[in-house]
Specification:
Blueprint lengths: L3 E7 L9 H17 L2 E8 L3 H6 L7 E6 L8 H15 L3 E5 L2 H13 L3 E6 L1 E5 L2 E8 L4 E5 L6 E5 L17 E2 L32 E5 L14 H15 L2 E4 L1 H5 L26 E7 L5 H4 L5 E8 L13 E4 L2 H13 L4
The structure holds flavin-adenine dinucleotide.
Length: about 350
């Protein structure tokens, strides 16, 4: 039986608020606490957590715990682990919900070990069936959906982002119970010297974007004039990404070209690959361009709700029930026109 639920969260990169995924995990925790008639605590980790605590002050949580201070501002396995352990022990938590951020995906499996509990990652939903907590996740590259229970407690569940509505109650004045954690020197050894990030222009993977724009190998192939036009392709694609804020995906054939020394799009990496051996992103809409729509690619579109494609070939895979709309057209021409329209002020 689940008596004490703990929602664990860390501050976002700005150091002020909570990451979007934490709001979603809190939404799930609030619902679950009601269904199970269990108590809910929130445990925060970060430098100064007051603003974040205020934003969840009216969530109905009985306790608002925090491990805070400069030692806990930056992600670090050793300090995050000790902070999370102190919060779980204070809350006597038997079920721990947390967002599947990279920070927690690193630290919380270690927490399960310390608490002699169990952890499951990439959870997409949590339900109560006949009084028992059931978690859902995908297996075998999103082909099999598993629903499972565990007897072991504490049970830590890391919720993937985009799977639950975020908590959005009004903020208030939170009374924080600070939990003191003294870090031994070996837990302070790792420090972040700085962050090297790509220019915001080249940051093309945007998980929260409303649209996924996929580029296929056709962008670098010979066009009807007998030549390839990679520079034009690059400027059309980057122009569209800039104007629309879309996230960029690629087909395997396109991302593999960088290893084959062909004319390539400089900003396209294997991290952009969508498909069976690539990623399975979640976006409300998707637009495929110059990509054939073969099954090993389209399987990565499983969570894209509305799909459109532009291809010269009326017999491409998208035409066979894989897209809602297929434009049989030259993507160079279509995207040039779309970019022009995006430049014009919207009436
Ligand atoms: C085990 C396995 C795993 C795989 N995993 C993946 C994966 O994760 N992701 C993935 O993508 N693939 C994967 N593949 C490969 C997949 O089967 C295809 O080979 C690949 O997706 C093809 O990429 P493409 O459609 O970009 O290229 P192509 O098949 O070369 O298609 C290019 C398309 O561009 C169109 N085109 C050209 N010029 C224009 C233009 N001007 N305007 C409009 N259209 C134009 C052409 O008509 C053509 O349809 C996998 C294959 C296997 C066997």
């Amino acid at each position: 039986m689940t008596k004490n639920i703990l929602l664990l969260a860390h501050l976002d990169e700005s150091g002020n608020g909570l990451p979007k995924a934490a709001g979603e995990a809190l939404g799930a925790a609030v619902e679950l606490a009601k269904q199970l008639n269990a108590s809910l605590s929130i445990g925060l980790i970060g430098g100064d957590v007051q603003a974040a605590a205020d934003s969840v002050a009216n969530s109905g949580a009985q306790r608002l715990l925090a491990v805070m201070g400069s030692d806990f501002a930056q992600p670090r396995f050793a300090s995050d682990l000790l902070a999370a352990e102190a919060l779980c022990r204070t809350a006597s938590a038997d079920l721990i919900l947390a967002p599947a951020t990279s920070r927690f995906l690193r630290a919380l499996p270690g927490l399960a070990h310390r608490l002699n509990g169990r952890v499951d990652t990439h959870i997409t939903s949590i339900q109560v069936v006949d009084g028992a907590v059931c978690a859902t996740r995908w297996f075998y590259r999103q082909r099999i959906e598993g629903v499972f229970q565990r007897d072991a407690r504490p049970w830590i569940l890391l919720l993937d982002s985009g799977c639950h509505e975020a908590y959005c109650g009004p903020s208030g004045k939170a009374a924080i119970e600070e939990i003191a954690v003294a870090l031994p020197s070996e837990a302070r050894r790792t420090t972040i010297a700085g962050i090297r990030a790509p220019k915001s222009d080249s940051q093309t993977i945007r998980p929260d974007a409303a649209l996924l724009f996929v580029a296929g190998a056709g962008w670098t192939k010979k066009q009807p004039d007998g030549k390839s036009h990679p520079e034009q392709a690059e400027s059309l694609i980057l122009g569209f990404l800039r104007a629309s804020g879309a996230s960029l995906g690629g087909s395997k054939s396109l991302v593999d070209q960088s290893g084959e020394n062909q004319a390539v799009l400089g900003f396209m990496t294997h991290l952009n690959q969508v498909g069976q051996t690539g990623a399975t992103p979640r976006h409300p809409k998707g637009l495929s361009t110059c990509c054939h729509g073969e099954e090993p690619h389209v399987v990565g579109w499983r969570f894209i709700n509305e799909r459109r494609a532009i291809n010269l070939d009326p017999n491409c895979g998208w035409a066979r029930g894989k897209a809602d709309v297929l434009y049989v057209a030259d993507a160079f021409e279509v995207m040039a026109k779309v970019n022009d329209l995006l430049k014009k002020p919207q009436s």
